[in-house]
Amino acid sequence: MPTLDVHYFAILREQRGLSQEKLTTAAATPAALYEELRSRHGFTLPGDRVRAAVNDAFVDAAAPLRDGDRIVFIPPVAGG
Amino acid sequence: MDTFRISSTPLDPAALQRTLGDVRAGACVTFEGWVRNRNDGHPVQSLEYEAYAVLAEAEGARILAEARSRFALIGAVAVHRVGHLQLGDLAVWVGVTAEHRGAAFDACRYIIDEAKARLPIWKKEHYVDGATVWINCATRGDHVGPTAVPPA
User: Fold this and answer.
1) Chain B interface mutation, best of A7, A43, A44, A56, highest count of B Cβ atoms under 10 Å
2) I need a labelling partner for B84 at 20 to 30 A (CA). Which of B8, B53, B132, B150 fits?
3) pTM above 0.90?
């Protein structure tokens, strides 16, 4: 199973209780991984409101995840 | 060179504007985003900005490149703060130069509008009553108050 470098920001960082962790997971896409983490940690944001970036680029929710990828979950933005 | 930076220290608008100096430019348009005292009816005491800086700067650079391809620009610079800001603080600065004012106004508007929609930056508001809220992150069940724990 791939091992991923997972990063959290903002509300996800607060709800997870940390900003980064390494995970070994069978989840093959950002959507699947978020759903796994959401149900494990009780994240309030549903999957359809969270985007993902892999290796510092926005990706589709169904993008394939590979061993060693850095994945960042992106809650709804509010800059400016 | 066009840059979109994330800054953890206070912004210096005069210094930023000087970097755009160019005798080819007949127009310089700047935008300043300030921390205001109310949002959606709530009295704001302060707020925090957090960013995924690597992607915010890359996506910001893309927005400046798009502005350059749409409008006849000479220069464009933007900076967004992260950290804990007080009322009246400068949160974001955008500056654009062009030969003529039409392109400068339009590009400045485009850059701040796109930045607000796309950059991985998050805002946590601190209200006068002590409550805090991550903007745009409310979910059903939050109606009992911003700091209530959502139902399991």
Assistant:
1) A44
2) B150
3) yes
